[in-house]
Known about the structure:
The structure is a single chain. The chain has about 140 residues and is an alpha/beta fold. The protein has 5 helices and 5 strands, in the order E-H-H-E-H-E-H-E-E-H. It has helices spanning about 20, 25-40, 55-65, 85-90, 130-140; strands at about 1-5, 45-50, 70-75, 95-100, 125. Strand 3, helix 4 (about 85-90) and strand 4 (about 95-100) form a beta-alpha-beta unit. Helix 3 runs parallel beside helix 4 (about 85-90).
Amino acid sequence: MIGIINGPNLNLLGRREPEIYGYESLDDINNWLLDHVAGLGENGMIFVQSNSEGEIVTALQEMGFDQAVTGIVINPGAYAHYSIAIRDAIAALPVPVIEVHLSNIHAREEFRHKSVTAGACLGMICGLGKMGYALAVETLLSSR
């Protein structure tokens, strides 16, 4: 089973800055991802979205130590740029975590160029829209 964690403001996808993030909602992306992953033989995913840093840390801990979860994809949103708590939670996990960003954080404002959470992850994918989630899941599935 793969865990998917989405951070702050991702619940507003489709309405929030669609010129940057697109017109699909988070539910649209999650449903597309479920279909994509089912085609790869994976039949279980857990989705969490929270605007709260503490809830994201708790979700990471719960998923990361759940024997059924073999990897986690996280889009920490703005927390990527300053949350040491989320970074430390990722580093503590026995399962691989891949960070995803819909937009290319390196082509945006300078404060978005650095991710403090990515260093604790297996890797980071940015700028590929929803396809970044699929690539992250495929990577996790192939590394089992």
